[in-house]
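Honest question from a wet-lab person: if I give you the sequences of every part of a complex, can you actually get the arrangement of the whole thing, not just the pieces? Trying it with mine:
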Amino acid sequence: MSERLVIIGNGMAPGRMLEHLLEQAPGRYAVTIFNAEPRVNYDRIMLSPVLSGEKAYEEIIIHGDGWYIANNITLYKGHKITAIDRTARTVTSDHGVTEPYDKLVIATGSVPFIIPVPGHDLPGVLTYRDLDDVQAMMLAAQSRAKAVVIGGGLLGLEAAAGLNLQGMEVTVLHVNPTLMERQLDPAAGYLLQRAIEERGIKVITKANTKAISGNGKVEQVELADGTIIPATLVVMAVGIRPNAALAKEAGIAVNRGIVVDAGMRSNDPGIYALGECAEVNGMVYGLVAPLYEMARVAASQLAGNEAAAFAHMDTPTKLKVTGIDLFSLGDFAEGEDRQEIVLRDASAGVYKRLVLKDDRIIGTVLYGETADGAWFNDLKKKQTDISQMRDTLIFGQSYQGGAPLDPMAAVAALPDDAEICGCNGVCKGKITGAIAAKGLTSLDDVRAHTKASASCGSCTGLVEKLMVMSIGDKYNPAAVQPMCGCTTLGHDEVRRLIIAKRLKTIPSVMQELEWTTSCGCAKCRPALNYYLVCDWPDGYADDYQSRFINERVHANIQKDGTYSVVPRMWGGVTNAAELRAIADVVDKFEIPMVKVTGGQRIDMLGIRKEDLPAVWADLGQAGFVSGHAYAKGLRTVKTCVGSDWCRFGTQDSTGFGVRIEKFMWGSWTPAKVKMAVSGCPRNCAEATCKDVGVICVDSGYEIHFAGAAGLDIKGTEVLGLVRTEDEALEHIVALTQMYREQGRYLERIYKWAKRIGIPEIKRQIMEDGEKRKAYYERFVFSQKFAQVDPWSERVSGKDKHEFQPMASVGFAQAAE
Amino acid sequence: MNWIAIGALSDIPRRGARCVTTPQGKVAVFRTQDDQVYAIDDHCPHKGGPLSQGIVHGTAVTCPLHNWVISLETGKALGADEGVVRTIPVKVEGERLFLALEALASRAA
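Yes, you can. This is the full assembly:
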C-alpha cells in the first residue's frame, strides 16, 4: 500500500515538488492537498500582469483540475488546516475533514505584513498576495477613484502600475528616500522613480503613514508630517513574513520561519517544510528560484534520496512592469575593499553598475538596458577573474574580444552551464540538450520539457535565440501567430492590451503597441477597427477607411466592380408591397439579376456604385433597411413557418426568428453570424449547421451553436435547453456577446468555440447566471449605438464622396 | 505638360481614394495619411479590380477583389505578385489637384 503524503498549501513550491516527486517516485504516495484558497495551483509571479489586465487568470494556471485527477491527487479547495496532531499523525481542516499522514509537508507560504496604524482594518485596505486581492483591487479600480499604495518595493510598484493601468489615480508612499532600496542603489532608484512618475503615478518618499481614516470605509491616508491624501483604496505592500503559526502551535521548531535542515526536514522526522514559510540555515526566501530549489530537494528526499541538499543562492530581481527594464543581483553596498564600474546615459535612461571585489563581480544593478544580466550573473556565479576585460566589461558581452558580436553570437558564446531561466534555474546546456534529444520545435515544447521561460517569461528572448541556434529554420515561433506583418503581437494580446491600456483609437493602438508600419495594412486595420468598435461602443468613432469596401459602402462588390444589394426581410418573411417595391427598383435601375439567397433573402446584382443611394432611397420608401449581407455582423435569421401553420410545429419559430433579428441586427461581430430557428426537430430551417441555431421542442427551445456549412461542414453543438422564448433570447445574445469579446477578427464561431472549448462556453452561458446577464447587458448597451440603418444614413447624404467620381474628364479636354 | 484640374485635396478622405472618369477609363486618385497624392489606373493588373475601393496603407493600396497590394508610387504589385498598373503624374498646388493630361492622351493615341 502506498504511503500517505499530506500537503498543507497549494502554492508554486509544493506544486513543483509534486511534479518532481511524480517523476521520481510515481505511485509511491497517495497525495492529499489542503488549499486555503478555493482554487488550483497558479503562477503567483504573474499576478501583476493579471492586475494590469495583460493576462487573464486562466492564462496563469499551472495545474488545472485535470492534472489533479490524472495524477490521482485529492485536492481540498478552500480548506484551511487548523490543527496538526503529531501524535495521531493527522491534520484537521476548518471544514472538519481529518486526514491521516505518514509524511506531512507544510507549505503555508507567507502572510503580508500589516502596518498597525489606526484604520488598518477599515474596509478598502487590502494586501497584495493572492488572486482574491487582485480581484478585489480590480473591482475597486472600476470606480476610477484614488488609490494609495503603501510600500515602494517590488510588489508595491507592480500593484501601483496595475492600478494605474486600470484607470485609478495612484500615489505610492515609501518610507525610504529611494524606491526598491533593497534591490537598487539610489541612482537606479531615482531613474525608476522618474519612470514611474512619467506614467502619472505620484511617488512620495520618506513618507511615514500615521493613520488611515474614514467613515465606515477608507477615505484618506494621513502622513506623519500632516499631509492628507484622499483614497478609496489602500494597498499595503510593505513586506511579508513566513506563515509559521500552524507549525508553532503543533510544537514544531520555529524561528523566523519553520526551521528545516538542508534536506527540508523539520525537527519532527515525518514533517517537511518548504517555500516561503521555511527557514534554511537562518535564511528565509521570497523569490521563486530558491523556492523551486527547495521543491527539488524536498521531492528527492521524499523519493528516498537523503543526500539531496539545499544550498544558498543569490537570485536576480526583475520588475514586471511593462516598459521598465530593471535587473539587480547580489551585494552592491559600497565598502573599502570594493570597487565599482558605472555607466550612465541619462538621455537614454540607462544606468549600469558593477560592484567588484578582488577582480570578481559581487553585485550588479542594470536599469534601462538589461540584456547582459545573464552574462554578469554567470561571471558572478563562477567567480570569474575579470581583470583582463575590465576596460570593456560594463559594455557587456558583445564588446568582449574586439568587434561587437551580433546577439545570436553572444548567446552562442555563453557556456553550457550559463543560467538562462533564473526562475527555474535552467541552464543553456539543459535547453539545447532537450531540444536535440527530444526534437523540440516550439517554445511551448521547450517550456513543457525544461520549464525554461515558463514562469515570469523574461528570458523568452534568450530561449528563442537558443532554439534558432539549435534548429535554425525548423524553429516554429508561431506559438503566437502575429496579427500581421506590422506587429509581433497576436490578436488576443492586442485585444487584451486595448482594454488594459484603454486605447481608443487606431493611431493610439499602433503607437502604444509599437506597430512597425506608419498606418498598418489591410489585415490589421479592419481587425483593430472591429476590436475598438466592440470594446468601446460609446467612445470610439468607427474608422470607415479601415473597413473593407463592402462595409464602407454597405453593399457587396462583384467581380466587375458593380455591387449587389440585399434588403432585410425579418426572419425571411415578406409581402406583396415589399415584392412590388423590389420589382419597381429592378425595372427602374435595369438591374440585370435578381436571385433568392441561401438565407431567405432577395439579392439584386449588378448595380452601379453611383446608383446605390437612389436604389436605397426607393427601397427605404417601401420600409426596407439594409440586410447587412456584406457585414462581419449579424446576417440573417432563417426560419420555418412553425406553430402558426405547420402541423408539426411546436413553437412560433417564425415569430421568434423575427424577434431575434430585430433585437440583434446592426451588431458587428468578428466574422459573419448566420442564425436559424426551426419549429420542430425536423429542422426545415437547417438550424443545425448555423453559427447559432434554435430547435423548438414541446418543452422549450434547444439552443445550438458552432455549426458550419461553408469551407468546413460541421454540425452544431448543443448549448442547452431553456423553457421560454425570453430565456432563449437572453442565452443567444449572451453567447454572441461572449464571441464578440473573445473572437479573433475573421474567426467564425465554430473556430472560436474550438479554441475556447465547448464546456467553458457552456459553463459561462448556461451555468453562470451572473456572467450571462453581464454579457447580455453589454450587448444591449452596444446596440444603442449600432442600430442605425446605414442605407437611410447614406440616402440622407452621409459619405457622399463614396458614390460620385470627383471629376469627369471629357474627350474635348483630353484631346486638346 | 497639360494639367487638368480635378478638384481639391479635401475632396478625398485621408487613407482613401476618389475616381476621375476619363475617356480611357477610370483613374483612381489616392490621398495618404500624410497628404501625399497619387494617381493610378483604377484597374488591378491581376483581374481588373477597382483599386480605388481598396484599403490604403502607407503608400500602397490593397485591391478589394483578391488582396493584391499595389504600390501607389510605382504602380507595381508588391510582395510575391507580379504586375504593374499605369501611374499618372499629379500636381498639388495649395489645395488644388491636377492630373497630367499628356499621360492620359498618350494612352488614347
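Two things worth pointing out. The mean pLDDT of chain A is 89. Chain A has 27 helices and 41 strands.
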